[in-house]
Amino acid sequence: MKFFLDTADLAEIEEAASWGAIAGVTTNPTLYAKIGGKLDDFHAHIKRICDIVDGPVSAESVAMTRDEIVRDGLELAEIAPNVVVKVPTMVEGLAATKELAKHGVPVNMTLCFSVPQAILAARAGARYISPFIGRFDDISDDGLAQVENIVESINNYDFTAHTVKGEQIEIIAASVRSANHVTQCALMGADIATVPFGVLKKMVQHPLTDAGLESFMKDWEKVQ
Ligand code: G3P
Per residue in 152-196, pLDDT tens? Predict the structure, then answer.
């Protein structure tokens, strides 16, 4: 399983990259707004992230029509070779994904909440599909079960004829809110979990590690 960092914050990305912990980054309009990002600096900011991370960096198109998403996507793909264009799961998004895949641009199909949506994304040529866990839980449903269904159904078929360069689709478990979400996603075989920095830090921690370290340090004082 790979981990992506779900943030637009350069300090968080630099820190996580220095741990050797992340294989990519995902951003979205909310995460960019959260760091005080401005429209005219968006492409430059994505470039800064691409310069730090040796792996796919998802940048989202906020356009609503096929042609606008394609235009946006082609421009975003020009920023760096590791840019992945994030496109929402909707009719115009599917049509744009098909077109972007034809141009060799990898797409991360986002805001995916069901198996039919995931299969349509795969047929359209998405390279990554991002089912959201937390937002599904937020409406009193079971986000993890939905990710499991999506992983299983995508793995039932071979979609490589549809993807850019015939690569395997990877499922990115998104809207991850806890280390336990990560555990469950690993057990069900999700390829990637994209996690906020706070969750990544919690993933490193365990109370028994802390207790063990404390007792080792105390005992080490005895041998001084
Ligand atoms: O990248 C999209 C997703 O991870 C957002 O998560 O917590 O805003 O639902 P959240």
Answer: 999 999 999 988 888 999 999 999 999 999 999 999 999 999 999
Tens digit of each residue's pLDDT (9 = 90 or more) over 80-99: 999 999 999 999 999 999 99
pTM of structure: 0.95
Domains of the chain: 2-223 (3.20.20.70)
Atom 4 of ligand 1, nearest CA residue: 175
> Taking the C-alpha atoms of 160, 61, 92 and 94 in order, what is their torsion angle to the nearest 10 degrees?
10
Instruction: State which ligand 1 atom lies nearest to the alpha carbon of 138.
Output: 9
CB atoms within 10 A of CB 217: 9
List, for residues 22-66, the tens digit of each pLDDT value.
Answer: 999 999 999 999 999 999 999 999 999 999 999 999 999 999 999
176 Cα: distance to centroid of ligand 1 (angstroms): 7
